[in-house]
Specification:
Elements: E1 3-8, E2 23-29, E3 42-43, E4 50-55, E5 61-66, H1 73-76, E6 77-82, H2 88-113, H3 118-124, H4 141-153, E7 156-159, E8 164-168, E9 172-176, E10 179-183, E11 187-195, E12 200-202
Antiparallel strand pairs: 1-4, 2-5, 3-4, 5-6, 7-8, 8-11, 9-10, 11-12
Length: 203
């Protein structure tokens, strides 16, 4: 979106320099110096001595405006520059609209491709999601997180005579022979620890 730029010739009250027809004598891209078409310059009504032009710079522009031969050399010229960053407020507004449109589009794409809405909720799961067992893996993100917690906070049993190590989830109890152990009835891992004397393996 183009912006309005206001210039004044000389100092003091700008209304003293009214009715002129200023023009660009230099309007070049920085740093290359290539010429580009300058916009027209108009006085802000009525007899204000303030002159404006409207432009949307795509790159940095250096300019010189000539107020006319009837002005003294000190007041005759206005030198300045334009930069795309001058329009940052419009760009931010445009970006916000674009992001809203992008978000709406992504939801639509997700719904049509099965990666949003109910499908995402199903993939994430919840606190009631299964954390699996020795035979099954969790099927949701929450299920995997719950499995980590159960594995880290649950009880483990190592039977030295057989080398069998068993990991259980927490919360319930399980019975082994004549003894009842705190833990859970869901077994998460069953590994055999083997000590060869120099190497200990878990398989």
């Amino acid at each position: 979106m183009a912006k309005n730029y206001v210039v004044q010739f000389g100092s003091g009250s700008p209304a003293l320099i009214t009715g002129f027809s200023p023009t660009f004598t230099v309007f070049k891209v920085v740093p290359g110096g290539g010429s580009t078409t300058p916009p027209g310059i108009t006085e802000v009504p009525t007899a204000t001595g303030l002159y404006y032009f409207t432009y949307n710079p795509a790159a940095s522009i250096a300019f010189v405006i000539d107020g006319g031969a009837s002005l003294g050399s000190v007041a005759r010229y206005v030198v300045g520059s334009l930069d795309p960053v001058n329009a940052v407020d419009e760009r931010i507004t445009e970006l916000g609209s674009s992001l809203n449109a992008l978000g709406t589009t992504l939801v639509a794409i997700g719904l049509s491709n099965g990666i949003a809405g109910a499908s995402v909720t199903a993939a994430l799961g919840g606190l009631s999601s299964s954390f699996g067992s020795t035979l099954t893996d969790p099927t949701t993100v929450f299920g995997f997180l719950r499995r980590l917690q159960e594995f880290n906070e649950g009880n483990s049993l190592f039977t030295k005579s057989t080398g069998v190590w068993q990991a259980w989830s927490r919360g319930n109890t399980y019975v082994l022979g004549a003894s009842t152990y705190p833990g859970a009835s869901t077994q998460l891992a069953n590994k055999t620890i083997t000590d060869s004397g120099s190497v200990i393996t878990k398989a």
